[in-house]
Amino acid sequence: MDVIYSERHRLRNSKTELYAGELVPPFECPERMDYIRDRLLDRGIGPLREPEPAGLDPVLRVHDADFVSFLETCWRDWKAAGYAGEAIATCWPSRAMPRLVPPREIDGRIGYYALASETSISEGTYEAACVSADVAVSAQRLISGGKTAAFALCRPPGHHASTGMFGGYCFFNNAAIAAQGFLDGGAERVAILDVDFHHGNGTQEIFYSRNDVLFASLHGDPLDAFPYYLGGADETGSGDGEGLTLNYPLPPKTRFEAWRAALADALDRIRTYGPDALIVSLGVDTFKQDPISFFLLESADFTTYGADIAGLGLPTLFVMEGGYAVEEIGINTVNVLEGFLGA
Length: 343
Known about the structure:
Layout: E1 2-4, E2 17-19, E3 22-24, H1 31-43, E4 48-49, H2 57-60, H3 65-80, H4 106-113, H5 125-144, E5 149-152, H6 174-184, E6 190-194, H7 201-207, E7 213-220, E8 245-250, H8 256-273, E9 277-282, H9 299-310, E10 316-320, H10 326-342
Parallel strand pairs: 1-4, 1-5, 5-10, 6-7, 6-9, 7-8, 9-10
Antiparallel strand pairs: 2-3
Helix pairs in contact: 1-10, 3-4, 5-6, 8-9, 9-10
């Protein structure tokens, strides 16, 4: 299985995250990739390839141009305003405000584009997000060119990024960019299976009213888990996309048996949809020791469900998302890939 990866993900190395009322070192850290890369090499999965520069055209196929421009200039504008720390949103347009216009002042503008305040923007964030998108596009193009499987080792992750908002450590939606790349390359239908603990709210928003992408997400119930507000089972798509959004919200302390039952239903629905390619938003924060999640999967379970996914027999692109039990992230990520390859 070809792996697309770039050391340039280290351009994003933020020092602050707002968590439990404190500024703490971010859970989403560069070291996550070290553990995954080293485990891939130890287990002989590869080769590891550098991404080809894709430019902004694939990004602009799924994200608003003004949002992309904001991300490009945010850090420069923040520093020019004289702020000493990293760029963190402090205010948002609320439900009671009918006039939604991005302010000129960066302190207000960042809130206009932010999903949540836990994710800071620091020097190099935009550049790392562009490289992460390049990783996804390069892996997608390998599959469009005839490969049966590939792994886009993306950092920063992407599934919380919507057409015009960042948050949850995500800036550009790598899985959505790849899905659009498949379609632009001639695919008629694509499925995205999101197995990250957190709901892929951004991916849902991007494709909610479209019939060329089926989106299925297994995640912590939004009544209990970030990003809240989206991900209920009653959210099934709208317009041409009705019935093509599948949400499986699961309660705290969900074990693998219940999680796998939800996966089986999602896989059946994907099989019926008949996509030309499958994208797996691969977050391994379903692991029982993850510090910001509440499912109870064991490391061996990741191997099992990798084989379950392989049972679809589809060209499959794995796109890295979350996973914050850093010392185990390499084991659990590679277990999924080995389960898939060994099925």
